[in-house]
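Sequence dictates fold. Below is an illustrative record:

_____
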Amino acid sequence: MYLVNKLHLFPLFSLLLFSGVIGAVDGTHIFVKVEKSQQDSYIDRYRRTSINLTAICDSNTFIHLRYPGSAHDSRVFENSIMCKNIERHGPNFYFLDTQKYHLIGDSAFALRTWLITPYRGNVTRKQKFHNNCLSSDRVKIEHCFGAYKGRWRRVQYIK
């Protein structure tokens, strides 16, 4: 199920290192009860049955992309309407100025011109600083997930 509108997002995050960040992308698991015949698709890395909810959070927007719990965050995002629209029409489909504005994500996502991710492998001191700043700014989406699950407690476990 996709809940996506054509959005023109505006800067939200006040960041230590990055300017022009308009939101963060990440995934969370919603634990669900499924029929035995379908359980294999829904078993996640925690060995529980769940759906993968991947969202982009800005000041007031969640874009939900749901897949079985066995799906990786990057796969869910790659198959999302938003990602497909950006690939088809370019980042200006969502971002007013692609030179100025972008999203941030964790290492589960591929680096793109419009998506900042951490450096991987052996990193220099500057790269480690970049990763630390990115991590501290990405915590905002974790707060969004906490607010979402706290507001709608039923979402923490669906039968």
Summary: The two ends are 17 Å apart (CA to CA). The chain has one domain: 21-154. The first strand starts at residue 21 and ends at 32. The chain has four helices and six strands.
